[in-house]
């Protein structure tokens, strides 16, 4: 029944507080909302509650990235954790995108796999269709594209649950390294890390490159050494990390993947001094 | 022309009393004037090549490619109306992408041809559209090895070892028939392709042409790409050496 709008009606008019009709007038103001107008209700989709991602399931831990004078280095281990269970030990989380860019992904592995497919489609349409040589997909393009994808998904309240580092070369051939996360937040730096690494590895990386622009003095050797040191520290202190990792170097010679690199020079001497984590019974 | 439609050629989807579809045959005529395209299937991959007639000196050399990529592992070249070809390629890309989004795998070449065959055939069934004015040669590598197909305006497509279409197809076909496809490699086929295109161009000598060659082989890791510039220059030189010999013989 449509009631005629009167002063008394408006005075009593209240908002509908049902979460599915929030903000609409109460039914007693204009009558019941007619869902059939302009197909306002999608019966097929509304029949079952829609779930958005609320937590990651299988996860990958930190990704590290560093610039040096000829390019960038990136590292990530091969573990896929199911909560605290180290469920998979063969997950490759750094992927090559196009011919001169790498993308390292931490966070939800299934979302990472979805990103892999999205990026493959991007590469095919931008780099392989009618590309007459000079229009390669470069790191800044991949980075900007990913920020749009992640920010768009966050605005749908259904984020891709990842932190991502994109490494490669800028349009002017200088090293490029930037970060994106599930909120669409993005920043760039000469030293980057995701997850636990942003607490444990960043200070160590910044010891090598204190000022952002100083990366141009850094040799590949030194950058590699500090990355390996960070991976060791992370293996010591991050319970979701693994002993084997992939180390990727991008420089003017191309993209080089070193797989199954092991954390070397471990010393667990410090462990005997740890007290208060339940492992040591006093 | 051998026959005139006498009223049966005004609309698509209409047969003549002797069972022919004239619009489709006329589409073939459009193709017969286009620049020559060829495809060669080898034991380790496929080679596509075409003769791109230069209609104007103002066109930028090396641009406006006529060989295109449908998916990483599939290439296509066509003779006839170029805009029709572009549309055909777009449809191929959509099909390849749609297959990938469903099956998370690259489309096998025969499956792509099935879908493109249906699409092209549809354009012979309605009076609101006209058939494609192109014959396309589609080639690529999938898990079953190399494939080469040629598809016509009627929508029929056949697998070939060597395919040729366009103005110089007769010359090209008779050259292709001499090849030993079982033992041919793409490295050899590239040079042969350059020669065949050059020979097929003989009848059309008043116009300059640009040679385009692409390949898709195990050496390119299954990727369809243009051959490197230095190889193209070498092939070009080889094919023109023949010309010089011919000229000497004539003089």
TL;DR of this structure?
Chain A is of the alpha+beta class. Helix content of chain A is 29%, strand content 26%.
Structure description:
Helices cover 29% and strands 26% of the residues of chain A. Chain A has 282 residues and is α+β, with helices and mostly antiparallel strands. In chain A, strands 1, 4, 5, 6, 7, 8, 9 and 10 form an eight-stranded antiparallel sheet that branches. In chain A, strand 8 (162-169) and strand 9 form a beta hairpin. In chain A, helix 6 runs antiparallel to helix 7. The longest helix of chain A is centred in the middle third of the chain and has 20 residues, at 109-128. Chain A is globular. The N and C termini of chain A lie far apart (76 Å). The model of chain A has no long low-confidence stretch (mean pLDDT 90). With 251 residues, chain B is α+β, with helices and mostly antiparallel strands. In chain B, 37% of the residues lie in helices and 24% in strands. Chain B has six helices and ten strands, in the order αββββααββββααββα. Chain B has helices at 22-32, 82-103, 109-122, 169-176, 186-201, 229-250, and strands at residues 37-41, 45-53, 67-71, 74-80, 134-142, 145-151, 157-159, 162-165, 209-217, 224-226. In chain B, helix 5 (186-201) packs across helix 6. Chain B is globular, with a radius of gyration of 18 Å. The N and C termini of chain B lie far apart (37 Å). The mean pLDDT of chain B is 92. The chains are: A alpha+beta (282), B alpha+beta (251). The A-B interface holds A 117, 121, 124-125, 128-130, 132 and B 62-63, 65, 68-69, 71-72, 93, 97, 100-101, 104, 223.
Task: Report, as a whole number of angstroms, the end-to-end distance of chain A.
Answer: 76 Å
Query: What is the oligomer described by this structure?
Result: heterodimer
Count the E strands of chain A. Answer: 13
Low-confidence stretches of chain B: none
Helix-strand makeup class of chain B: alpha+beta
Instruction: Tell the overall outline of chain B.
Output: globular
- Average pLDDT of chain B, rounded to a whole number, is 92
> How much of the residues of chain B is beta strand, in percent?
15-25%
Strand order of the largest sheet of chain B: 8-1-2-9-10
- Count of alpha and pi helical runs of chain B: 6
